Queue: 3 jobs
Job 1
Amino acid sequence: MDLGIEGRWALVCAASKGLGKGCATALAKEGVNVVITARGADVLEATARELRSLGRGEVRAVAGDITTAAGRAEALAACPQVDILVNNAGGPPPGDFRDWDREAWIKAIDANMLTPIELMKATVDKMAERGWGRVVNITSGAVKAPIDVLGLSNGARSGLTGFVAGVARSNLAARGVTVNGLLPGWFDTDRVRTVAASTAKRDGVTAESIIDARKRGVPARRLGTIEEFGAACAFLCSVHAGYITGQNLLMDGGAYPGTF
């Protein structure tokens, strides 16, 4: 299927590895020009080389912290125009809410709620002026089914989801701009393995046993791949998804037990 987005410009955050990399790769394969960001310059540049080897659109790498005003400004400056915005940031650490102080909460909210909002503020009106735009917010399956050790993420990402529910249904929708959430469950990423290690330490078991248990709890009996995640993101960014907005696509291999 031709997604109809060749030649567009995309800003993909936290794209050096994991789910962000999956999204950037899928878009680059469609001929989208991508600006990728991450804090680690070496890993980011390695990913940029991989994307350039596809021989499709232009690839620009901007090392920096997207959760800071300076990091956002530098990333936006590298993108001639943002037709597609993929918001993503590393999740806050797992733990017990009794141990988190105000600074921990503010840091989580800054990264996983306010940063996506700031990037939307900087881009969606220009998208609307051009009559086309796509925003995909990578959040978490924990928005629908909270995970006990991820309280910081549960709170911050749920706040973003509630905010986007209103914005997506504003006058942006009538001007060709869609805003959706992509909610990963258990994917084979460093983040998931970090959470598994934290849970294992708490429970006095091995991280691999936690991963195996996660797999058994998923009807698909496996972890998801970043390629699958990226393909879903690319579809939401495509011309075929223009009638999908304000939605939250849960990708969890069927793990969520609810009907809605």
Job 2
Amino acid sequence: MTTFHTISIDGLDIFYREAGSRSNPTILLLHGFPTSSHMFRNLMPGLADRFHLVALDYPGYGNSSMPTVDEFDYTFDRLAEIVGKFITAIDLKQYSLYVMDYGAPIGYRIAAKYPERVETLIVQNGNAYEEGLGEFWNPIKAYWQDRSPENADQLRPFFILETTKWQYTNGVRNPEMISPDNWNIDQLFLDRPGNVEIQLALFYSYGTNPPLYPQWQEYFRNHQPPTLIVWGKNDYIFPTEGAYPYQRDLKDVEFHLLDTGHFALEEEGEAIANHIRQFLKPRLQPTPA
């Protein structure tokens, strides 16, 4: 069963979900925008018989603390620092990293800093290559260049219900299979007073990620973590142009393009769980008692 916890990290309440026995290999699940650990609610019990799974909510997301932009530095460096301290606090020694969307720049910062801790990577629509930043990113790139109120106003439609729903339904085969709970829950958190400012701060901070791509790619080449790619191929935000380059730098890589959109777990959760089982079984063994 999945259990639900809160731990204090740097004075913030960090919420996390946990499933499975600690005697099994750990998978640390890092969520994307604008969701939370809720995105892993079905995957975790589906793998808990074989793995130990942990999924947290970043500050400003889900059930974790939401300090204002004046009280907390909403940057990817700071989020990675919080996640790193969380890993230490709950005593994870080694783990596979499941990264999606925002989870990629957070996870890759941690992996590059502590490569010996990362046993494998599972990448679902998480970018580490310039090729993966397509047309969707143009107004965000403009904001990186000029953090003006006018450019910020161009980004505010990203935080409304219609757009949140679009993220879940665009590119899927069967929209009727996608629960409206997803966008309704995410939107409740986005609509909290002060949260738009948090999201704008992180949109701006995303501009610090592309300069780190060469460093992350060097980590891939030097440390060669076995990597499973499970990518929604109809994703407009992170298109498949960002998926293929992983194969340039990684030798032990299993590559799957799935006929769905950005939040691939919603439509292809069972397939992704099966891919994880098959990929990790020969590569990871339970910790001896």
Job 3
Amino acid sequence: MSTATETSPPSQGSAEPAASVDLRRLIDAERYPLDGRDRPAPDTRRSAYWNVVEHARGGLRADGCAVLKRFVTPHGIRQLNDEITAAKPRTHFSSQVINPYFHTEVNPAFNDDHAVNTFTERSSGFIPGDAWPAVCAMDTLFRAAAVCRLLADCLEIDELHCYDDPLAGLTANILDPGQQFPWHFDTNDFAVTVLVQPADEGGLFEYASAVRSADDEGFEAIGGLLAGGRDGVHTLDLQPGDMQIFRGRFSLHRVTRVAASSQPRHAAIFAYTRQPGVIGRVERTRQLFSRVLAEHEEAERSRVRDDELLD
């Protein structure tokens, strides 16, 4: 993120604000009965809500990933994609070579062929959080209390808060033809994404779960993957409307290159935290959005790290 403070640029092409957005038209309520959390089952079988939760918990426990298939309705996907398309002029595209920790400089403490000194092209874009209308489908899905409650139950935590970062809390990742997002780790413990528009070719999400831990960087496994190894790699066949819950702090992951002849890949990214009021790191914010706000600099001065990982 960044060291210079900038104000938000004027909106260029954001979708027209809506009077309201009906959450019931965005989510497949038959598959995902969000109002069924506290509703007793008609018999001894587990309720539909808790069946969804248990299925997601199984995936997260096994390899740090769960997919809620067709969570967003076709109507909701059209709304999301219309909003992303309207906000796309605000996208910050960048092309740089990074290592899995988003560093761009050689670290002399490690050998030249070490994972820390292995750099790959990142060529993608992010629509910042201040590009969205105050009322829109993106924001409605992100902030819905019932959605947050479902995600918290899936993650087996008591509560979940919307990431308070004004740029990185609610974003969309854009991969235009020829672009890719290489192997990397997240700074957050988990991420929630919805595939909105898939690439015609390429643009596949791949991950290797738990290749490092809070006290072990796992350099050997990471180096093998950066060298082209496929040990433990999962490739997801995501479809429009699929919501993915992913523990990306310890699992290496990437989105493969979108074919030059393909349509762009659009994914909505909903960021949440366990504590309220969390703001992103200055260096990572600058890399993704080319600017920071006063909130980022203030948070950086008082930040306390949860671990000593490279990032």
